[in-house]
């Protein structure tokens, strides 16, 4: 798989949502070919037109989730945890041999500011179990606020913790992260460590409310 932005095609499933569309904007602006995936292809196409208007050029396409995943070189799944299992099962056959990035965070409404550990320990571990060993599953972007991603003309002052069991797959995601101004990729270890990374999101949501801020993120100190 090439990481040349002129060649790589990224599908963002859940690309009609705030987090997903923010990632679409950032990567499209950086020169990648980006597909928006949705359960409803018409809804995805409408969102693609909206983002193309913002970008000033026709570079984003909207498709249904399965078609977008099939056409892409790399697949990013940015959907609510309630839809996570269904989406992973729906794309299983078309993502074999590919890198899949899972952005999902297990939340248990209404207590979204309290850490919730699901039966499978983390969304990413559950996704790997569904998709099978031929899919290189990477967990990333759980702690990045959609608010900052949507402000695509400004840098994102946030580190991104990346967990996965395949070093080459993680390296590919490092490049995608660092294509976004201000972001820094941090190798956070094997996929099992995604339990801790996903659990940080409800902590950040609590911090947002407690300190009346929008989009709290993380920076790892001591690496400079």
Written account of the structure:
This protein has one domain (9-211): Rossmann fold (3-Layer(aba) Sandwich), CATH 3.40.50. An 8-stranded mixed β-sheet has the order 3-2-1-4-5-6-7-8, sandwiched between helices. It is globular and about 40 Å long. 40% of the residues lie in helices and 18% in strands. It is built from 8 helices and 8 strands, in the order E-H-E-H-E-H-E-H-E-H-E-H-E-H-E-H. The mean pLDDT is 95. The protein has 224 residues and is an alpha/beta fold. The protein has helices at 18-29, 41-55, 65-71, 81-91, 123-131, 146-150, 167-178, 194-211; strands at 9-13, 33-38, 60-64, 74-77, 99-102, 136-139, 158-164, 183-187. Strand 1 (9-13), helix 1 (18-29) and strand 2 (33-38) form a beta-alpha-beta unit. The relative contact order is 0.14.
